[in-house]
TrEMBL record:
Its EC number is 4.3.1.18. One of its GO terms (biological process) is isoleucine biosynthetic process. The modification N6-(pyridoxal phosphate)lysine is found at K107. This is Probable D-serine dehydratase. Pfam families: PALP. The keyword Lyase applies. Its cofactor is pyridoxal 5'-phosphate. Keywords: Lyase, Pyridoxal phosphate. InterPro entries: D_Ser_am_lyase, Ser/Thr_Dehydratase, TrpB-like_PALP, TrpB-like_PALP_sf. Transmembrane segments: none annotated. It comes from Dethiosulfovibrio salsuginis. The lineage of its organism: Bacteria, Thermotogati, Synergistota, Synergistia, Synergistales. Residues 69-384 form the Tryptophan synthase beta chain-like PALP domain. GO terms for molecular function: D-serine ammonia-lyase activity; hydro-lyase activity; pyridoxal phosphate binding.
Length: 423
């Protein structure tokens, strides 16, 4: 594990790092006076519960209308990683947001929550809805007609656009997603098939967000979902932690100082991993160890963490931001998330794209789990950090089930070739 100076040198050269956060303080202190509070997270949870009857009606694949993913043990994958990389691997669980219904990624809870908050606020203000009512009435024509007078815009590398776009278009909002050049063609096609307008920017993700924000500000009745600054997104992401607590209880997995839990979270702008880390630290305090993972070519949060300031971009250091982990292809971190997390999280790791492909291949081969390269980043911590005594680890698989089969097959082939080539 590197110290701060060495980590910075390696980040600049796009070499992998594992940096234990030297600025971390006890979570009870780091959680004081934050921009988002636990009551915001509980509000988000209650809002998602209120909308469950509507979601169950419009997205029957969710069953009860709660958009949640399974968690599962992964002993075969743990053995493959242990043997293949010559490391000790603790009890391993996969949190499979890759299989999250409706939107297929970790961005769903936050993105969908913000759209539901918007719809609820507008409908209540108009006198069309009371929060005690059964929200399945939102599927009625009159609500769609009402929402169609408003537009929604968002900038996205792909998965936030899918989450916001699907829910916003379903409710009837006129929806535009601004995408960066890294965004995958299939994600754009999927959105267009749902009636969403996709604007492609010949720039990176941060620039797409800025241009989208400016375009929205110049329109009347346009609401911008701001991936870099939104507390509604953040509190929606954090709801995952409350639900994970219940899932761990049902697995009889204890988390305390003798049974630490390490959680590996792929990081782009920081909102989704930051929200989850925030929620988990509220529940488990310092017994949960949250590590973010980024690609070596888009290490924006790593730079911000190691330098101790959020106003950084990878281009300032001549780093190209190009990675196959499209969800993590972000040049600048969220200022808001950095402020909430820089003294809270346990560390940050960067990983090369080749390792992502290998781990994606192993997940499919040994555990039958389909995940995208961004999600495979969650497994890299296992190849890097030695387990703590009594540790259980969660690799947060952040997306993947929506990957088209032909794209997925060619990724697996590449990963398999890399894996065999090195062994
Ligand atoms: C699959 C996947 N994993 C992780 C992330 C990281 O989330 P955030 O950008 O909020 O850090 C994203 C972001 O879009 C994603 O699509």
């Amino acid at each position: 594990m590197e110290n701060r100076e060495r980590a910075l040198e390696r980040i600049k050269k796009c070499e992998p790092i594992a940096w234990a956060n030297e600025d971390k303080i006890p979570s009870s202190l780091a959680l004081r006076g934050t921009a988002v509070s636990i009551s915001d997270v509980l509000d988000a949870q209650a809002r998602l519960d209120r909308f469950a009857p509507y979601i169950a009606l419009r997205f029957p694949e969710t069953g009860d209308g709660i958009i949640e993913s399974p968690i599962s043990e992964a002993p075969e994958l743990a053995s493959a990683i242990s043997e293949g990389y010559g490391v000790e691997v603790p009890r391993l669980l996969l949190k499979r947001d890759s299989d999250l219904p409706v939107a297929g990624s970790i961005k769903a809870r936050g993105g969908i929550h913000e759209i539901l908050a918007l719809a609820e606020g507008l409908a209540v203000k108009e006198g069309l809805l009371r929060i005690e009512q059964d929200y399945s009435i939102l599927a009625r024509r009159e609500f769609r007609d009402f929402f169609s007078k408003y537009s929604v815009a968002v900038g996205s590398t792909g998965n936030l656009g899918i989450s916001v776009g699907i829910m916003s278009a379903e409710l009837g909002f006129d929806t535009t997603v601004h995408m960066s050049q890294d965004a995958k063609e299939w994600k754009k096609s999927l959105l267009r098939s749902k009636g969403v307008t996709v604007i492609e920017h010949e720039s990176d993700y941060s620039e797409a967000v800025h241009q989208g924000r400016d375009m929205c500000e110049s329109r009347e009745n346009c609401y911008f979902v701001d991936d870099e600054r939104s507390s509604l997104l953040f509190s929606g992401y954090a709801v995952a932690a409350l639900r994970l607590r219940d899932q761990l209880k049902s697995l009889s997995l204890e988390v305390d100082s003798d049974h630490p839990l390490r959680v590996y979270l792929p990081c782009g702008v920081g909102g989704a991993p930051g929200g989850i880390a925030f929620g988990l630290k509220q529940i488990y305090g310092d017994s949960v160890h949250c590590w973010f993972v980024e690609p070596t070519h888009a290490p924006c949060m790593s730079l911000a963490m190691v330098l101790g300031r959020p106003d950084v971009s990878v281009s300032q250091f001549g780093i190209d931001g190009v990675t196959e982990a499209d969800g993590l292809a972000v040049g600048a971190p969220s200022d808001m998330v950095w402020s909430m997390c820089h003294r809270l999280i346990d560390g940050i790791i960067t990983v090369e794209d080749d390792s992502l492909y290998e781990l994606q291949y192993l997940m499919d081969r040994d555990q039958g789990v389909k995940a995208e390269p961004s999600a495979a980043a969650a497994l890299c911590g296992l190849t890097t950090l030695e387990p703590l005594p009594g540790e259980a680890a969660i690799a947060w698989l952040t997306g993947g089930s929506f990957l088209p089969e032909d794209t997925y097959k060619s990724m697996l082939k590449h990963g398999g070739d890399l894996w065999r080539g090195k062994r």
